[in-house]
Structures are given as C-alpha cells and as structure tokens.
UniProtKB/TrEMBL annotation:
The keyword Secreted applies. It is found in: Secreted, Cell wall. It holds the Pfam family Glyco_hydro_28. This is Exopolygalacturonase-like. Its main location: secreted. InterPro entries: Glyco_hydro_28, PbH1, Pectin_lyas_fold, Pectin_lyase_fold/virulence. It comes from Prunus persica. The lineage of its organism: Eukaryota, Viridiplantae, Streptophyta, Embryophyta, Tracheophyta. Residues 1-24 form the signal peptide. The keyword Secreted applies. Keywords: Cell wall, Cell wall biogenesis/degradation, Glycosidase, Hydrolase, Secreted, Signal.
Length: 404
C-alpha cells in the first residue's frame, strides 16, 4: 500500500512539473485587434489595448513593438484587476507643438495602479525643442509650464525600468503620491541648454528607489520636493545638469516635511551643482528637511560640489527677503571626492531664523585646478562637525550671521 502511494505521489509530481506555467496575456498594439502601424498615430490603439489589459483577471502585458509611432497623448488609469506591464520596445513621439495636447501639463500619464511595470528598452521622445525656446519659467514665477514627458501618480508596488526619456518639453519624469516604486536602468537625455527639463522630480511620495540610471538634462538630474520620505538614490550618473537636489522647498503654503533621503555611489560630471539642498527665503509656512545623507559621491568638474542654499532664488531679479522657515537638521556629507570647477567647493548657507543643526562633513577630498583663487569653503548659520577634511574645505569662514 505504501509503495502504491509513493508511486502515485511521484506520478503527481511529474504531471505538475510538465504542466505549462501560466503566462501573462499579451495585448500587442500592432495585432489585428488594435491595428497600430509604425509611422502612424498609435493613441487609439494603445488606449484600447490598455483598457483590455487592465480588465484582464490575470497578469497582462501591453506591447508596443519596435518602430516609431506618433502618440498625441495618453493617460493610463487603474485600478487594474491584476498586475500589468507596458512593454515599449519602439519609439513613441510626442507632438512638437505642446498646444496640440488637451491635458497641457502631461504627455503620458499613469494613475492609480498597483503593481505596474513599465519596461521594454524603448524611447519616449518628447520633441521638446520648440517648448524650450518658449519656456520662461526660469525667470517668470507665474509661468504656465509645458507638459511633463511621463507623469506617475498614485502608484504602489511598481517598477519603471529600461526605458529612455528623450527631449522632454518640461520635466522628464514627475512622481507624485507614489509608494514603494523603483526606477532603474533609465536613460534620461536633453541638451544642457534645455530649460526646466528635470530628470526625475519626486513629491509627496514614500519608498522611492532610483538606481543604476544615466541622467543628463538642462536642470536637476533628480529633484525631491516636499512631503517626500524614504527616498534612495544609488548608482546614478548625472551630467550635464544642475545636480541632485532636495528642493526647492519653502515656496508654497503648508508644505510638508522631507525625511529620510539617501544619495550614495553616484557620479556627477560637468554639472552646475553637485549635491544640493535649496530653500526659498520668506517661506509662507514652516517645515523641515531632516535625515539627509550623501555618501560615496564622485565629482568631476562640478561648479558647486557641496551646497546648502537657503537663499535660493532662480529668477532674474531677487529682492532681499526675510529668512527661510525651512529647518534643516541631521545632514551628512561623507566620502565625497573629485574636482571642483570653482574655488568655492563647499558652501553651506543656512537661514538666520532657523540655523542648520547636526550637519556633518566627513572625508571630503575635492581639488581645484583653476586660476580664480585658492580652494575654499564657507558656512553661514551652521557649525558642522568636521572629520577628515582639509582646512580649506572645513568651513574656515564660518559664522552664525548672513554672508555678505
């Protein structure tokens, strides 16, 4: 009897092993069902394929095969009934004229989705050159921004990987109200002169990981806004651009705190700034930024390698205003090496109203080979803890009063 049961158990195992595993249902936009063709507008086909895939009770995959397709605009909305993947293998091209979009702030959006994967090695081409020339947001605080290339809102447990965002009209990737979402192996590209083309901007999100990506734009490679928590940036190469930034903070009413930011093992090359925290003066409401840690960073010819700027003003004319109300606390800069494009390699300018506290400079080794003076550093309204830092980089000029 025991031998018979053992034989049946073995037979059952063999049957289970030979049973094909279930695969995700595939919704190919070029199939007869949807009818998309390279060179044509794929908007309708892609919307229908997404709708069918999102309604699938089992895991599904929307596929855009190799080729170049026009895409007027798209919003992919959940919730979906099961995990869903969009695999873009080809190139999707936005209209060159932003005026053709009915949603003026977004070209492609993903909303209210749990367990989304966006992948495929393809390209989202924003064709932004026309918008860069018309965009005056760098000097006009009341401007109307052009559309973002990719906007992710209210995602959970999701992944964006192995895609390229090219020549966005405004921000390349905007992340808002997302939780536990990873961005990896991305390529984000726009010319140095393209205005406001931040690579990835994060706001009001928790548990965001950005890793092993190459970002070169005309603005911040990565910018982190208010109400952001547990954000990790690792293995990112940045340049050209304005660096990896916390902020700007303190511009709007009732902004929420920023906590738990880690930037590690990154390389910045020929950027306007390195690792930066920036807050506006005259903040309408108090807030804080704390638990911010930069470690193992390489700077190559970076203009402002280490920077806290609580007098941030991006506009052409800036009036002297009351101090920032953003409290900066528990910040560390560790093992940061390389070269500065300017002699001022470390600049920590904190607010008079709420001086920075618990700031640490450890193992900072930056060089300057230019002819504009000796390597130097300056601090205002902060007394950092300094370990393994040369005198020139150790805030020899340090005060609890505004810098001239």
């Amino acid at each position: 009897m025991a031998m018979k049961l053992s034989f049946l158990a073995m037979l059952l195992c063999l049957l289970l092993a030979s049973t094909p595993k279930a695969h995700a249902s595939v919704f190919d936009v070029t199939s007869a069902t949807y009818g998309a063709k390279p060179g044509s507008d794929v908007s309708t086909a892609l919307a229908k394929a997404w709708s069918d895939a999102c309604a699938s009770p089992s895991a599904s995959k929307v596929v855009v095969p190799s080729g170049t397709y026009k895409l007027k605009e798209a919003t992919f909305r959940g919730p979906c009934k099961a995990p869903i993947e969009m695999q873009v293998q080809g190139t999707l091209q936005a209209p060159a004229d932003a005026g053709q979009l009915t949603r003026p702030d977004t070209w492609v959006g993903f909303q209210y989705i749990d367990m989304l994967t966006l992948s495929g090695g393809g390209t989202f081409d924003g064709q932004g050159a026309l918008s860069w020339n018309q965009n005056d947001c760098h000097k006009n605080k009341n401007c109307k921004p052009p559309p973002v290339n990719l906007r992710f809102e209210f995602l959970t447990n999701s992944k964006v990987q192995d895609i390229t965002s090219l020549n966005s009209k405004f921000f390349h990737i905007h992340v808002f109200r997302c939780n536990h979402t990873t961005f990896q192996q991305l390529t984000i590209t726009a010319p140095d002169e393209s205005r406001n083309t931040d690579g990835i901007h994060i706001g009001a999100s928790t548990g965001i990981n950005i890793t092993h990506s190459k970002i070169g734009t005309g603005d911040d490679c990565i910018s982190i806004g208010d109400d952001s928590h547990k954000i990790t940036v690792t293995g990112v190469t940045c340049g050209p651009g304005h660096g990896i930034s916390i902020g700007s903070l303190g511009k709007y009413k009732e902004e929420k705190d920023v906590t738990g930011i880690i930037v590690k093992n990154c390389t910045l090359t020929n950027t306007e700034n390195g690792v930066r925290i920036k807050t506006f003066p005259d903040s309408p409401s108090p807030s804080s930024a704390s638990g911010i840690h930069y470690e193992d960073i390489i700077m190559v010819n970076v203009s402002n390698p280490i920077l806290i700027d609580q007098l941030y003003c991006p506009y052409t004319k800036c009036e002297q205003k009351p101090p920032s109300k953003v409290k900066i606390n528990n910040v560390s800069f560790k093992n940061i090496k390389g070269s500065s494009f300017t002699p001022l390699a470390v600049k920590l300018v904190c607010t008079t109203g709420k001086p920075c506290e618990n700031v640490e400079l450890t193992d900072i080794d930056l060089t300057y080979g230019g002819d504009k003076g000796p390597l130097t550093s300056v601090c205002s309204n902060v007394k950092p803890t300094i370990t393994g830092v040369t005198k020139a980089l150790g805030c020899a000029t340090s005060s609890l009063a505004p810098l001239p």
